Amino acid sequence: MRAVALYLRVTAKPRSSTAARAQDRMRKPKGSAQPPAALSRRHDVSVRQVAGFACWTVLPRGKAATRGAVYLHGGAYTSEITKQHWALIGALADEGVQCEVPLYGLAPQHTYREAYPLVIEVYRQLLERLPAAAVTLAGDSAGAGLALGVAQELPTAGLPQPRRIDLISPWLDLTLSQPAVQAVAPRDPWLSPAGLVEMGRAWAGGDDPANARLSPVKGPLTGLAPVSVHIGTRDIFYPDVCRLRDRAAAEGTTLDVTVCMGAVHVYPLTPTPEGRAAATRIVQGISR
């Protein structure tokens, strides 16, 4: 984990350490969102259009899918899905989970206003194949924040809660305004508040980033499915996860937080012993 942190501090943190650098990052062309060829060799992979956006389906080959998951990738709402995301999705499919992967539009060209109806429709379509009691809403970083926000919107959409909600290092408050965030920021080798706040403004598309649909730590927690969170202590999102945990305890919502000391942002996606152990727990929780 220390080696990963050093690598990130040198290669990743400078790319969005200021608002200006974040703007440069948003202007750059996006990479390919195609799943790796190895995933298609192991599983049945297909794509369709939902609400004008691509949604990939990864079906386990050779076994019936008894569980389902809608997985929302991270990337500060501005970056495309990566091989690390596909690796976790592949691991879920290995265990018999049907994975729906909607590729929501990225900021600044797109905003949360398009993402919510997309994800809710993908979830609704999955419920036509599997009962809600067999389905998980999951995501990492920005995608995890969106997953929680969508779960909070399901009653309004007339849809049941999923079996569980799995969040990896969720971005819960676009404003990052807690003083505790500034205290953690120097220890985070990857993320910087200044750049993230700028990208959050783009995702908000002119709306208030403190709105609960953009910052779901402020949204309703009563009635949610059980929530599981994995977070490291060297992650600027850690203080807001603690805030969510305290709110859930006060409101009687089931929320299990796994804290990995010294771990970086989205550590379950990293090639480390801690990351592999966490990924295994996440896959087992969703598949079993």
Could you give the count of β-strands?
Answer: 8
Using the 3D structure, state the CATH architecture.
Answer: 3-Layer(aba) Sandwich
CATH topology: Rossmann fold
Number of helices: 10
Adjacency order of strands in the biggest sheet: 1-2-4-3-5-6-7-8
The major pleated sheet works out as: 8 strands, mixed
* Estimated radius of gyration: 17 Å
Integer tally of domains? 1
In words, what does this structure look like?
The protein is α/β, with parallel strands linked by helices and 288 residues long. It has a single domain, classed as Alpha/Beta hydrolase fold, catalytic domain (Rossmann fold). Strand 7, helix 9 and strand 8 form a beta-alpha-beta unit. The longest helix is centred in the middle third of the chain and has 16 residues. The radius of gyration is 17 Å and the shape is globular. The model has no long low-confidence stretch (mean pLDDT 96).
Entry keywords:
288 residues; 8 strands; alpha/beta; eight-stranded mixed β-sheet
Topology (elements, then pairings):
Layout: H1 2-11, H2 19-27, H3 37-42, E1 43-50, E2 53-60, E3 67-72, H4 83-94, E4 97-102, H5 112-127, E5 135-140, H6 142-157, E6 164-168, H7 179-184, H8 193-204, E7 227-232, H9 238-251, E8 255-260, H10 273-287
Helix pairs in contact: 2-8, 5-6
Compact overview of the structure:
40% of the residues lie in helices and 18% in strands. The chain is of the alpha/beta class and 288 residues long. Helix 9 links the parallel strand 7 and strand 8.
